[in-house]
Specification:
The chain contains six helices and no strands. The chain has helices at residues 2-8, 12-38, 44-67, 74-102, 107-130, 132-142.
């Protein structure tokens, strides 16, 4: 199943878009569900932080496995992955209140707008920062040694 899925999604950029769509729907669903369930008792920024932690863990597993095909360094990559989303969370913590408090956009649609805006930067950050070492190691391991030894 895993290999079939990888063959269908051969392009890293396409895999990122598909997995990013799944992650976005999941993360937005967690935020919306928490907001609808607890929004009258808990401030939307506290809900945002809880939803972010849950969504980042889910996104890490899928992006590591399906998008970047990373191997090894699991904890190190998680720290790097989380640091990318800390920046995203910082942007979100500024943009969401701006939309909600100043522009009077309802909380859930405002979060949808912010999520779309921050999604674009995460691909470049993960590709060049989070998984760059693990991806290189995976390529070196997957390349079979030459049969006749070094050429030239």
């Amino acid at each position: 199943m895993r290999e079939r899925l990888r063959r269908v999604l051969g392009s890293e950029g396409l895999r990122f878009v598909v997995v990013g769509g799944i992650n976005t729907v999941f993360g937005f669903g967690v935020f919306a569900g928490l907001q609808l369930s607890f929004g009258e008792r808990v401030h939307y920024l506290a809900i945002l932080v809880v939803a972010q932690v849950i969504a980042v863990l889910e996104a890490y597993v899928l992006q590591r496995w399906l998008v970047f095909r990373a191997h090894g360094r699991w904890w190190r990559d998680l720290v790097r992955f989380s640091s990318v989303y800390m920046v995203s969370l910082g942007v979100n913590l500024v943009a969401l209140p701006l939309l909600v408090e100043i522009l009077r956009v309802p909380v859930v649609p405002a979060q949808g707008l912010v999520m779309l805006g921050t999604a674009l930067g995460t691909y470049a950050a993960h590709r060049t920062f989070t998984f760059r070492h693990s991806r290189g190691a995976a390529r070196r391991v997957d390349v079979p040694p030459s049969v006749g030894g070094p050429s030239g």
